[in-house]
Amino acid sequence: MKYSSLSELRPLRLDTVAAIGGLLLALALFPLRFLTSQIYIKTVPVILGTACVLYIVSLYQRDDARAVPTLPSSVSMALPSVVFVGLSGLVVLPVLQGERTLAFFGLASVVGTLVIGQIVFVNDRDLHPGLLLLQIVCFAFVFRFAALYTTPGYIGIDIWTHRELVDAILTEQSLSAISDNKHYGSPFYHLLVAASSLLYDVPIRAALYLSVGLVMPISVLLVYATTNLLVSTRWAVLATALYAFGNHVARWGIHIIPTSLGLVFFLAMLYALIRVMRIEYTIRDFALLLLLSIAVILTHQVSTFIMLVLLLAAFIAQLVFVIGPFGLTRLDTSVFRTKKPVNLVGLVVFNLGLTIFVWSLTPYNQDSFLGTVLSYFTQTLEDSAGFLNTASESETAKAGAEAAPTLLEQVVPYVDNLGFLLLLGSTFAGCLYVVHRRRAEQSVFTLLLAAAFMLVFILGFPMFGIRTFIPTRWFAFLYAPMAVLGAIGLRTLRGSLRPSLVVAVLLIGALAYPGAMVLAVESNVENPVFSDQHERLAYDETELAAAESIAELTGSPDGEEIRPDQQLHTDHPYQTLFSRTGAYPSTTTATVPEGGVAAHDYTVYRSAQSTEATYVTDTDGTARIEDLSPTQLCRPDQATVYTNGDVTMCTPSPAGR
TM spans, by residue (predicted)? Predict the structure, then answer.
């Protein structure tokens, strides 16, 4: 085999320098793993280093790359039928078992592997993009609606608040019903669900699933449309699959809140933005971009901030190509079409101004939303900011952190994040490809900078104790540019590496990525695969019935009417069901000393506290997972005022007064 020398590869070429720089950065960050147990600090340097090494190797092997082995035509023709049979199984299993079980997730992993296997290993003659997209959309639809169908009530925590807001709008037939809530300034989600309920003449739950719920699986096609503006069809389909299988993307398809609808509008805006950069656009194209940005602002505040980050990335990309080192004459027209950078100054200024205006008028905590957020951010900088200050993540940590973790406790974080890390590795490879001077252009640099900025908010700021921006909400948005860049990265490696190495990389991705995303906790919050490590963010019929009965029993008093000693205590997340639905507004997480009993007067015990991962707090306020016995929360000296066999409410005994 002939290997090119570094001099022959022009070491001053930006992609080569970036790959070497990335490798050095990974080596420099590697020792941080010995200073903290934070999962990303331990894993991201390894992923970055691996991606850079593979890219450098692809530069050496580029001239000798041979055709990658493909599947026989008979196998390629049979696989779609196998996938649809598997999808049928994904429909039947939840109906028979009453929930999404481990068998369901195992089958979903296999189906996902078969879909990605078709995309990367089928030859060009047997590649049918429309059929592959149908499989992806059907998978997304079945995977999400299996959870929605088998779960009584709703999945998640915030959804119960939004349900109450929609109900208030329907009751008063006016948006003024939520005039004291921060969503008054971004009401599009609530108005859409309320309008759907009236239009279809169905309850709020059904209206939600028939409106936003139906849109979520279909919205993945926007990723295909975006990627297809940049690369060939095969890799556009791959980007769609990478995005549709994402754990955080699935999360907002089953926990359907304004973030979900904001994500849909964000994907549409990303497509419109890349489109105006890739075509000779008209005023109609720019008007669509403007309309979508307004829709995001009127839907969700966090989505709006993420959109502003995207627009900032696009604006900086514009500056790079106007005054930076990337001259248009250096563009390789065989890769990207030479086109003058799009001027986005007006769009950025308009959206920033409208956002500030709307947030200034939005009520939040007796102040405006803008004022409250700035106050929170300032307080965070003063109180908890500091390098490697990840201590505040212990909100969901066990109190006994000094004890050696079990093997399962060590493995679960890696399983939860493996899919993201695989996608991140391919994204790094894609970023290295597009920084080549002859390939660089505004659209791909917008994606690169947007992904980089989002990673700063998701991974960078939390390293310094700054979590004001709610980083967990960003992942699904980040996955969009990552899926596009990841597909470009895998396309690059497939065309440059030796066939044996290509097959190894693609096989690892096809076998590990779907399963990792399916098993990650965000994909199965209503029935976690690792139920002793993750809380179940859904409730069964008896738990929902108990909340309603306790509301009737107590008369659902207002928070002001409840004395501090009458506050209701139960586990997290069950306590959120009472407070967010108004069943008993003054409800919080129970304090249970390790090995001891709760000292509260008003408590609620449910059997899940003894069998599943539920949270209580120590006397110092630290949250921990604990398997409680009934007597630890409902003491023998208390009176039982309600029980349905699964949930019990206890109050002070009259005999003890």
Answer: 12-32, 39-57, 77-96, 103-121, 127-147, 206-225, 252-274, 281-299, 305-329, 341-361, 418-435, 447-470, 476-493, 500-521
